[in-house]
Design goal:
heterotrimer; A alpha/beta; B alpha+beta; C alpha/beta; A: alpha/beta; Glutaredoxin; Rossmann fold; five-stranded mixed sheet; 14 strands; C: alpha/beta; Dimethylsulfoxide Reductase, domain 2; Barwin-like endoglucanases; 3 domains; 25 strands; globular
């Protein structure tokens, strides 16, 4: 390509960091995100010189690379202090004193959307250029640690997450061995018969997805593990990845075997430094020990590798097609469907996308069998589910309970709530339940019947002290900030929604504003490209209609 | 191998459009079967961008409305283009666009707004807009992003769909998303080669020729007094079709017919701007 | 020393005549009378061959038709030519020699549908940008692009593989590719047997060009030569395109033939998607030749030496066309020097600035008794004229047609009125014809066109109405009811020898290095080319401002600049065996040591053709603009 560059050169540090990041790669467009990270990590921002160097190395037009870099909130295009503190001002942190934490900082502060550590709200993550990232909050053990009924979480906090042998000693790689015994078709049958549904929010039957991908004639097939857990109030996948990283790798290997993938991408959100480190280690150890690569566990002809990709601050990249664009080195904008990922996904090839928790369930199914898996949960919602309990609750954290447990029981596990005002179920894209509705059994079907959703397992508790108007405004702000900007209903609609809500909360609104919210909400739901815009009005609508919030 | 190109045999697909049975070639979009469907981001020479959401229609069995510009017709599909839901969607999309963007030079949009009763002013005087000063950083063209609806067409025309120069891209996110060179560098420092193919596809007048911009500013731009005549470029031997827009016997703008098999609406700097020599007095 | 910034040319709106050595305004009658009188005087003195017509590759087909008709029917000579001599005459000559037709063989759509594209001596990205879009469509669909060029041009930057050959070593490279194809068993035997002749002699002639020998001569690594040979021969559909890097050499026609050889060898011609395409440099250089504005062909590319053809034309024109071909542009310039040619009629051409070794051209034109220039500007050539006739701009002030590089005839339409005082070319030719005793009159361009297509079988089916309806039509188009395939020479694939017709001959070619030899005195090789925003001598493109235009420069690689002790923007003296000019230095990392580059877009600032060489191709008469030997000296501060 006959590219043209601005006159700017990288510093030695920038150049070196970028070159190191590209060692061993084919310098394709899909290395753009890692290269941008390398520059941003090294000096804290992305200079013209650094961008030029990246573009020359990868043959990417500078305007496009700039467009990609500016898509992500973790990248700065202006010079800034080497140390930056990301303070979460999102839902769970907002009701737990986020603003006071912002005010208390002496370092350069970036107000951040949900950092995914809601159990330790208010959360803050300090990042030093050329150095490490660290949480500023005290550690908090898993609330159910030691509970023998734990299935998905059984190894979290009990095995050394850096040790493959520890993992194997705790039952690791038994599922993959069984998968090889069953063969790809057999694995898909087990998963289908287990009625496993996706745990990322959409609850699509995993077996059907796998069968559809496996049957696609196009090659290669790709596997993407969606670990871009960014729904405000969600942190279950982080806990799994930090505490049981080899399980994620083993489960990806099983999925790849079943669906005929030779390459997998693990896309993890950029704000999870500890999970990233744990998984990077797991991949490299698994590779060293022959659990990734060719002839895995002696299985002839089976080859699988995992590449880890770090997001850079964009909620939308958790959308199943936006994640492809992000991996490929383009802006993380969702694609129009159809075609669906199983047919044309990553790099235009058949792709299966699974959430971390979904994959973790696969290991259970393959070790205990689909019939035993059925024993837990309800006939339609099988197995157990991780819930992210946060907000004004005594013992926040990730809880694993069988499907069918009521919300009340879950809240009691978390220490009970006095003066319960409402629960935000499913996250910012979910909806509110009133205090009198908490006997709802937590299943996909009961949630649907009650006109709500379990979403990604968010259970965000609001007691009487919470300023609901301000909370809703934060939800509106979140969608405004996280809209990718591709389609008109969402790009402008989320702004108009926030403006109208702002007027209403400040008591400057009128009946017209309510009509306006409904009109805008409807067009976002009807005509947005992806789930972000389609659900951007859900929580606010339910606050009005279900909570009877007087706006 | 055949000596003559025999092409691909094409199947036909039947579906229901507004209650009538319609047959189209396999692979055709819903839009291609519709008459007078309003759309802003659709470009007849470009892949559908799916961005403006003006052309949404109702497809039976679909949870959301679907963009007619990109959705391919499937056998037996039942499509309705004029329902309460589609009209609501179109009204809101036009209201949202009109509230944020200067649509004063966007052809047809006023008619569409009147048709669905859109009132962009309903969001109040404090509604955020993309208003900003026009970028006038070179002698050939002007970028007035107050009029930009983010249809992606200029980026696609500059990028791998046609020009492959990649001088501009979408930068930023959400409401702050905008068309930009790297680090917002002025065009003369960018990769721009002034082919004007971005202007050719711009649906709103956000991108315009300097001559047009200046004449509008001085109040002498008069489209009703302009003729459009298609001829052939005088520079190299490729034979690009030029449509000369002439006002008072002066060439004021050059476009290219999109259906031309030579240009598909694209030109280079010489074709687009190299006409001044005939009228240097 | 400062750079001269030229003001744009302004339109001519009044006829001029020379009196007492200077051009003064005149009435139309006076100017036309003097123009006609001068022609009559010279023909009476020296016979019809004392007259030469420089027709215009930028004017319409209709104007070219009338100009050559004027030359042949009114004056009675075949001395008519146009600037295609300075660029693509070797392409026409080469293609016509092998295929009996001088056009590129394929359509742009076929470029998009090709599997492999070779651009040889072509910086299409800058010189033919919209053609290159078709190439990029193919590349983005997965086609492979090979670029053969001494410079790392913006075109070469798009290539999957770039073959950087030494200037003037095209034939060794092509022959080595041919040898490799033959030795690898990849020669297309079916096609060679059906559609070609002379294969055995050709195969023997390339035998000396082994990969190592070729690498040594061309500078292209043997492995790359091998790769291109295999890729070209193996591709299902391969396109070969070239521009002036092939033709502007003293042996340009041989260069063209060397590429045609490859297409014959691999069977990459005469099929949809496979072909040979010279990219024409001017809007109607294809049409000018098709219309007979060349010394050896009548309209429709019909041989002037064929009595039956002449009879047909004489019958319609009431003429008696000379039975032998006339002089080409180069030969006309030589005839001027000898004194055999004493008058010329130059329409829309600027040979003073476009010809190599321009000082020499000025001298020759100054020799003439009577020079008539018809142009829209007072060019450097017009300033030498005895009579200057202000014309209209073909592409926007007249009706007619142009023919492009894919042989597509397209309608040109009048969009603006010519400035007061300028007149239509055809009208002026008719005025002169009437003054020379031929009562010519045309009611518009369509009448000219219909007269022409009645005489030219390959244009016969192209009515104006049809051209408008179909967005242009590619020739040949013999009847109004059908269209031919978009490519030429399918006949060569026919199994029936009768339908196949004359086989396409292979050409045995010898390497002949550039005439202007490098020496210790002139150690650098200068090659020339175009930039995106400028065009030829800049008379037209200088009329608009371009944010990219930087004026003329001498481009050197960083190493040469270092060795010469010069830096960017420094003014240096550039000398050849013919003259010297001064230009600023520009550093271009796409050049290799020993190779320098200049354009020819800014002759009023820096007249590059002072130093280029006039060594011409013996067949086509095109000069070796692409290879001069130069030296570069720092300017001495006075």
């Amino acid at each position: 390509m006959d590219l043209r560059f601005l006159e700017a050169s990288p510093s030695k540090v920038e150049k070196n960091a970028i070159d190191v990041a590209l060692v061993g790669t084919d310098c394709g467009r899909d290395q753009l995100l890692p290269a941008l990270h390398a520059a941003n990590d090294a000096v804290g921002w992305i200079s013209e010189g650094a961008l030029n160097h990246i573009c020359r190395r990868l043959s990417v037009p500078p305007a496009e690379a700039y467009g990609v870099a500016t898509f992500y909130s973790l990248f700065s295009m202006q010079e800034r202090p080497r140390k930056v503190v990301h303070v979460c001002v999102d839902l769970a942190c907002k009701v737990n004193g986020a603003e006071a934490l912002v005010a208390a900082q002496t370092d350069f502060v970036v107000r951040s959307p949900c950092l995914g550590v809601c159990e330790r709200a208010p959360a803050a993550l300090a990042v030093e250029a050329g150095g490490d990232a660290s949480y500023l909050m005290p550690e908090l053990p898993l609330p159910q640690l030691g509970d023998s009924s734990l299935r998905l979480l059984r190894r979290v906090g009990t095995v050394d997450p850096l040790s493959l042998d520890d993992y194997r000693a705790a039952g690791g790689y038994a599922a993959l061995r069984n998968a090889f015994l069953l063969g790809p078709q057999g694995v898909i049958r087990e998963v289908t018969d287990a009625k496993l549904m996706g745990r990322g929010g959409a609850a699509f039957p995993t077996g059907r997805k796998w069968a559809a991908t496996a049957g696609q004639p196009g090659r290669p097939h790709y596997l993407v593990c969606n670990a871009d857990e960014s729904e405000p109030g969600t942190f279950k996948d982080r806990v799994l990845m930090e505490g049981d990283p080899f399980a994620v790798i083993e489960a990806m290997t099983v999925a790849a075997y079943a669906t005929g993938c030779t390459r997998g991408y693990l896309y993890i959100r950029g704000e999870y430094p500890r999970a990233f480190a744990a998984l990077t280690n797991a991949i490299s150890v698994a590779h060293e020990r022959g659990f990734l690569g060719s002839n895995i566990m002696g299985q002839p002809g089976f080859e699988f590798d995992v590449e880890i990709r770090r997001g850079a601050g964009a909620y939308i990249c958790g959308e199943e097609t936006a994640i492809f664009n992000s991996i490929e080195g383009f802006r993380g904008e969702p694609r129009s469907k159809p075609p669906f990922p199983v047919e044309k996904g990553l790099f235009g090839k058949p792709t299966v996308v699974n959430n971390v928790e979904t994959l973790a369930n696969v290991l259970l199914i393959l070790t205990e069998g689909c019939q035993a898996f059925h024993q837990v949960g309800t006939p339609q919602s099988t197995g157990s589910k991780l819930f992210c309990v946060s907000g004004t609750v005594p013992k926040p954290g990730v809880y694993e309970v069988p499907f069918g447990t009521t919300l009340r029981e879950l809240l009691e596990l978390a220490g009970g709530v006095e003066d319960l005002r409402a629960v935000l179920l499913g996250g910012a894209a979910g909806g509110f339940l009133r205090a009198d509705e908490i006997d709802l059994p937590l299943t996909m079907e009961d949630a649907r019947a009650a006109g709500t959703t379990l979403g990604s397992g968010v259970v965000l508790v609001l007691d009487g002290t919470v300023d609901v108007g301000g909370f809703l405004l934060r939800i509106a702000e979140f969608f405004r900030d996280e809209s990718c900007g591709q389609c008109v209903p969402c790009r402008i609609g989320t702004v108009r929604q926030e403006e109208a809500l702002h007027r209403i909360v400040q008591r400057k609104g009128d009946a017209q504003d309510l009509l306006l919210l409904r009109d805008v909400g409807q067009v976002m739901r009807d005509s947005s490209i992806c789930g972000l815009g389609q659900t951007a009005w859900n929580a606010i609508e339910s606050a009005i209609d279900r909570l009877g919030v007087q706006l | 191998m055949t000596i003559v190109d025999i092409g691909l045999p094409r199947r036909l697909v039947e579906f229901t459009l507004d209650g009538e049975q319609v047959t189209v070639p396999e692979g055709a979009t819903i839009l291609s079967a519709c008459k007078d469907m309003p759309t802003l981001c659709y470009g007849d020479t470009l892949e559908p961008a799916n961005a403006c959401r003006v052309c949404m229609v109702e497809v039976e069995g679909s949870r959301t409305l679907v963009p007619s510009c990109s959705r391919k017709v499937e056998p037996g599909m039942v499509v309705n283009t004029d329902t309460e839901r589609t009209r609501h969607s179109r009204r809101l999309v036009l209201e949202l666009l009109g509230s944020a963007t200067d649509l004063s030079t966007t052809p047809q949009v006023a008619d569409w707004m009147a048709d669905v009763g859109a009132d962009p002013a309903r969001f109040g005087p404090d509604a955020a807009t993309v208003a900003q000063p026009a970028k006038v950083d070179n002698v050939l063209y002007v970028r007035d992003y107050s009029k930009c609806i983010m249809c992606y067409k200029c980026v696609d025309a500059c990028g791998d769909q046609w020009q492959n120069t990649f001088a501009i891209a979408v930068a930023g996110r959400g409401f702050d998303a905008h068309i930009s060179t790297e680090f917002s560098a002025p065009l003369p420092d960018s990769a721009c080669v002034y082919c004007g193919n971005c202007i050719e596809v711009c649906p709103t007048g956000a991108l315009s020729f300097r001559r047009e911009y200046d004449k509008r500013a001085e109040g002498t731009w008069d489209e009703s007094a302009q003729s459009a005549t298609t001829t052939v470029c005088t520079f190299c031997g490729v034979g690009c079709n030029l449509t000369l827009h002439v006002q008072d016997n002066e060439i004021v703008k050059v476009t290219s017919p999109h259906e031309s098999s030579v240009t598909h609406g694209n030109l280079c700097i010489k074709g687009r701007f190299g006409w001044q020599h005939v009228q240097n007095p | 020393m400062g750079r001269r910034k030229r003001e744009p040319y302004v339109r001519l709106t009044q006829p001029l005549v020379r009196e007492a050595g200077i051009l003064r305004p005149a009435s139309w009658d006076e100017a036309l009378d003097r123009a006609a009188e001068g022609f009559r005087r010279n023909i009476e003195a020296g016979g019809p061959d004392a007259f030469g017509m420089f027709s215009c590759a930028r004017a319409t087909n209709e104007m070219n038709y009338v100009a050559q008709k004027f030359t042949r029917a009114v004056i009675g000579t075949n001395n008519v030519d146009s600037c295609n001599r300075t660029c693509h005459a070797p392409s026409v000559a080469g293609l016509a020699k092998v295929f009996d037709s001088g056009g590129g063989t394929s359509s742009y759509q076929e470029i998009e549908d090709a599997d492999l594209i070779v651009l040889w001596g072509s910086n299409a990205r800058e010189a033919h940008p919209i053609f290159f879009q078709h190439v990029l469509k193919a590349v983005n669909k997965g086609a492979k692009l090979y670029v053969v060029d001494p410079r790392l041009t913006s075109t070469a930057k798009w290539a999957h593989k770039w073959l950087r050959l030494n200037v003037g070593t095209d034939i060794p490279l092509a022959n080595a590719i041919a040898r490799e194809i033959i030795h690898s068993g990849l020669a297309n035997r079916s096609f060679i047997e059906r559609g070609t002749e002379g294969f055995e002699e050709f195969a023997a002639s390339v035998e000396e060009w082994t990969l190592p020998v070729a690498e040594l001569e061309t500078g292209v690594p043997a492995e790359l030569i091998r790769e291109l040979a295999h890729a070209y021969a193996r591709a299902d559909r391969a396109q070969m395109s070239w521009t002036l890097g092939i033709t502007e050499h003293h042996n340009g026609t041989d260069n063209v033939l060397s590429l045609i050889n490859l297409s014959l060898l691999a069977g990459q011609v005469g099929r949809y998607g496979a072909g040979l395409n010279p990219l024409r440099g001017q809007n109607n250089v294809q049409g000018g030749g098709d219309m007979g504005a060349i010394p050896d062909r009548l309209p429709g590319f019909q041989d002037v030496e064929d009595p039956a053809v002449r009879r047909a034309f004489d019958a319609v024109w009431g003429s008696s066309i000379q039975p032998r071909k006339g002089w080409n542009l180069t030969q006309m310039l030589e005839a001027m020097e000898r004194g055999d040619m004493t008058t010329v009629y130059i329409i829309g051409e600027n040979p003073v600035q476009s010809e190599a070794d321009c000082e020499h051209t000025i001298k020759r034109l100054s020799n003439l008794d009577h020079v008539v220039v018809q142009d829209i500007f007072l060019t450097k050539t017009a300033q030498l004229a005895h009579v200057v006739l202000p014309a209209s701009a073909a592409w926007c002030e007249t009706d007619g047609t142009f023919t492009n590089s894919e042989r597509r005839v397209q309608r040109v339409r009048k969009a603006v009125n010519a400035p007061d005082g300028a007149r239509d070319d055809i009208e002026l030719l008719c005025e002169l014809a009437r003054r020379l005793g031929h009562d010519w009159h045309y009611d518009g361009a369509e009448q000219v066109w219909d007269e022409m297509r009645a005489l030219s079988p390959m244009h016969r089916g192209m009515s104006y109405a049809r051209l408008a309806d179909l967005g242009g039509i590619q020739w040949p188009c013999p009847d109004e009811d059908s269209l031919e395939p978009s490519f030429l020479h399918a006949r060569l694939w026919e199994t029936d020898p009768v339908k196949r017709g004359r086989p396409a001959p292979f050409s045995v070619l010898r390497h002949s290095p550039p005439v202007d030899e490098l020496s210790t005195e002139f150690p650098l090789r200068l090659t020339t080319g175009r930039r995106l925003d400028s065009y030829n001598t800049g008379v037209q493109s200088g009329g608009f401002e371009s944010p990219m235009r930087r004026g003329e420069t001498l481009d050197l690689c960083p190493q040469d600049a270092l060795d010469l002790g010069v830096v960017a923007d420094e003014m240096v003296q550039v000398s050849s065996r013919r003259g010297a000019i001064v230009a600023p230095v520009r550093i271009d990392e796409g050049l290799r040591p020993g190779l320098a580059f200049m354009t020819f877009h800014f002759p009023d600032e820096v007249d590059v053709n002072v130093i280029t060489i006039e060594a011409t191709d013996p067949v086509a008469g095109t000069a070796e603009y692409k290879a001069a030997a130069i030296r570069v000296d720092k300017l001495v501060n006075l």
